[in-house]
Amino acid sequence: MELGQVMGRAIRGGLDAHIVFVDAAWAPRTAEGGFDTVATSLLLRMAAIIERHTLGRDKMTAHLITNLYGNIHSAIRMATTIKTEPHKEDEYEDA
Predict the structure, then answer these.
(1) CB within 8 A of 36, min separation 6: which ones?
(2) Rounded to two decimals, what is the model's pTM?
(3) Most buried one in 3, 14, 51, 52, CB count within 10 A?
(4) Position 95 confidence tier, pLDDT thresholds 50, 70, 90
(5) 3-state secondary structure string, 57-79?
(6) Three-state SS at 24
(7) CA 69, CA 54: separation in Å to the nearest integer?
């Protein structure tokens, strides 16, 4: 089942959802002891896409994206187990 579908079902049902990313594929370089970027980690890429749309000039889109995906963005950014190098998260321009 897709991640968005799981979150949507929990929200519509008024339930708490605990989503755990346990597979190394979410941050493969971290799993190997290295550093991940938006080019290597799907989680970091998702956060970068959300940030790009919430920081854009289109206020309506920013508001919509923040309301729909703000919680998942916060959760990804609080994931302390994903290792990143400072300023390397932005190297993938097409995120």
Answers:
(1) 27, 28, 29, 30, 44, 82, 83, 84
(2) 0.69
(3) 51
(4) very low
(5) CCHHHHHHHHHHHHHHHHHHHCC
(6) helix
(7) 10
User: pLDDT for 31-85, tens place per residue?
Assistant: 999 999 989 998 889 888 888 888 877 889 889 888 888 888 888 887 767 888 7
- The count of C-alpha atoms lying within 13 angstroms of the C-alpha of 70, restricted to the half-sphere facing its C-beta, is 10
Task: Report which residue type is found at 84.
Answer: T
43, burial (CB in 10 Å: exposed 0-12, middle 13-18, buried 19+): buried
Tokens of 67: 């309301």
Structure tokens at 8: 């949507």
